[in-house]
Design a protein that fits this description.
Length: 381
């Protein structure tokens, strides 16, 4: 077996976990999660990713790897003010049920796929914008910490784009310690524990949080992940993937875990020829990827403790840098189709505004605005 197989899996796990953990922790902070609940969230979602990646890769002999919904975490961090952790768990359960429904009922998956890609991309871009813009805000507040990280990220990105965020995170931790940030005592570090969080089903939260989570996860994660597998010659078993990730999400949601979905960004690391020149044996990256995520799940509590001791500027900056490429991709995709370009801009502007009305958050209002503009344009034509 080529050494590139476990190395590619390790890089994919580090990029997927370390590069976007700051977004996940920002989401947990917005929901007012305790450190124990946050640790449970991280542990649960890592375990779900490990289990689903191992099962799907071994069963289908394809490098099928999963992840959590980073754009979904961005929705929570940016638009879930006032939502409690139990209410968020209720929304996570709704997303899991809708995902299972798409796996069981083929027309539902087709209906989601028919959502104009420009509008879906516009909604995603509107969600991500405030995180990337937050880099500038933090650079004004903490220039000595933020600006070196941005320079390092930009310097590394042309040569090692997958590792640029990891490098910025590692350097940020060192800078924060040098500037006097407290490091948790060894006795404060521990293995992760799952904490059961009883769900609370609030109709307003289900509509304003659950629906955007589902649509963004399907459009920006699952559909993109299917495209990555196809691009490398692997026909994705779409309904089984949706059923597996939906079931895993249903089982881990009561422990605070956000939706599990097909990996999009890190999938290319595990499916490319660089991982294994032989397409027939490239699936072995999946079990290695799962193994590394299992190790990360055990260390989830310690990771949360370390991040909790770091300055808010560091977390915000790393989150913004991690979402810079997804924002670029979303803005590009939003402008591709000329017939939906105006609708995509309307969706983007409304979502980015942060406006809310009738108990609905900006992502739902942005989606409604985009569909209304697209519908009006269709009537005129």
């Amino acid at each position: 077996m080529p050494v590139s197989v476990p190395l590619s899996a390790l890089v994919a796990a580090l990029v997927g976990a370390g590069g976007t953990l700051a977004v996940l922790l920002s989401a947990a902070k917005t929901l007012g999660a305790t450190e124990a609940e946050t640790s449970s969230w991280v542990c649960g979602v890592f375990l779900g990713v490990a289990a689903t990646s191992a099962y799907l890769s071994i069963r289908y002999r394809m490098p099928i790897v999963t992840a959590w919904s980073t754009p979904g975490a961005a929705v929570i961090a940016g638009f879930a003010q006032g939502v409690t952790m139990p209410q968020a768990v209720g929304a996570f359960l709704l997303v899991a049920v809708l995902t299972l429904a798409c796996a069981a009922v083929r027309p539902l998956a087709g209906l989601v796929a028919r959502l104009p890609s420009g509008i879906a991309a516009g909604m995603l871009a509107g969600v991500l914008l405030r995180f990337v813009a937050g880099i500038a805000e933090q650079a004004v507040v903490s220039p000595l910490l933020v600006l070196p990280l941005v320079v390092l990220f930009l310097a590394m990105r042309p040569f090692a784009p997958q590792l640029a965020v990891i490098a910025a995170l590692a350097a940020g931790l060192l800078f924060a310690l040098a500037l006097g940030a407290p490091l948790p005592a060894f006795g404060d570090l521990s293995f992760s524990r799952l904490v059961l969080i009883p769900p609370e089903f609030d109709l307003g939260v289900l509509a304003s949080l659950g629906l955007p989570l589902f649509l963004i996860t399907m459009a920006s994660q699952n559909l993109t992940g299917f495209a990555v597998l196809k691009a490398y010659g692997y026909p994705p078993p779409a309904r089984t993937i949706l059923g597996t990730t939906g079931l895993a999400s249903l089982l881990t949601a009561p422990f605070g875990s956000i939706t599990i979905n097909l990996a999009a960004i890190v999938a290319a690391i595990c499916t490319s020829p660089e991982a294994d020149p032989n397409p027939a044996t490239r699936w072995r990256t999946g079990p290695f990827y799962a193994f590394f995520y299992l190790l990360l799940a055990l260390a989830g509590a310690s990771m949360v403790a370390v991040f909790a001791a770091m300055p808010a500027a560091l977390i915000a900056t790393v989150a913004g840098l991690a979402l810079l490429s997804p924002l670029t991709g979303a803005l590009t995709a939003a402008m591709v189709e000329d017939r939906h370009r105006l609708a995509a801009v309307a969706t983007f502007a409304t979502t980015a505004s942060g406006a809310s009305a009738f108990g609905l958050g900006a992502p739902v209002l942005g989606l409604a605005a985009g569909l209304a503009v697209a519908g009006f344009a269709r009537l005129r034509s």
